[in-house]
Design goal:
Strand order of the largest sheet: 1-7-6-5-2-3-4
CATH architecture of the largest domain: 2-Layer Sandwich
Radius of gyration: 21 Å
Distance between the termini: 65 Å
Protein name: Helix-turn-helix domain-containing protein
Structural class: alpha/beta
Order of helices and strands: HHHHHEHEHHEHHEEEEHH
Shape: elongated
Domain DUF5753: 98-271
GO molecular function, one term: DNA binding
Pfam families: DUF5753 (PF19054), HTH_31 (PF13560)
CATH class of the largest domain: Alpha Beta
InterPro entries: Cro/C1-type_HTH (IPR001387), DUF5753 (IPR043917), Lambda_DNA-bd_dom_sf (IPR010982)
Number of strands: 7
Number of domains: 2
Helix content: 40-55%
Amino acid sequence: MPKRESNVLGREFGNGLRAAIATTDLTQRRLAEVLDFDEAQISEAVNGKRGLDEHQVEVLLAYCRVPLAERRRLMSLYAEAGEKGLLLFPEDGVPDQLRTLISHEKESSEIIDWAMSLVPGVLQTPEYTHHVTEAGPIDKDDVPKVVAARIARAEILRPGRTFTFLVHEQALWLPVGGEDVWRDQLAHLLRMSVRAYINFHVIPRSIGMHAGAAGDFRLMRFPKYPPLVFLDTLNCGLFFDDKETVALYEDRVKRLAAVALDREESRGVIDNILEGLQ
């Protein structure tokens, strides 16, 4: 089949293929020699650009002794790589959409997060995250590892990429975990909001209806790939990188930014809430 540009489905397939190859302890060059493939084809495949034809993929997965369930998943991703978007349902304790989100976050150069009801995930304190996870559709036994995975996402909050957080004021007023957890979370936001690479903006309740009323979303931009939109639901995650869908969310970002408070005003909102908790 003809080579294709990388998209979110192709990269999900590529990540799975890379993991399969890693189990052989062979380099891509050596694997290409063993299977009589072109090394460039394998490189393109693991980078989400197709590269290999269907038969070659089957041969490679068989050589890597990929378990049947994972082989079926990867072949399904391969077949759908030209379609729009990626829908992931969790199959074990840590939702698959969370793993995929973390992977894309690490590759991004810019992240824009709109949060209407809760503090954005990467800005949450561990205690806040624990209470949010407990209230979600997660089995009790799986809560600790899901919390750990969500907390680990905060490692990306370092210089090297830009973060913009657009947060509705009502999310700041929600006392998740009780007053002590709430207070610590607000104090954490103040500390994070002064970092040069973090732009934290509050959408005030006083504006009434707003462009983000349809729900939370995350827009990620990359050095080499098209922008990607992530939507999280109770039991699945949606990833979109087609131009039409991305344009809709980029418009939402512009509309929200137009009514958002500036950085100092946003910190003032947090200060006022904290003063009321004294």
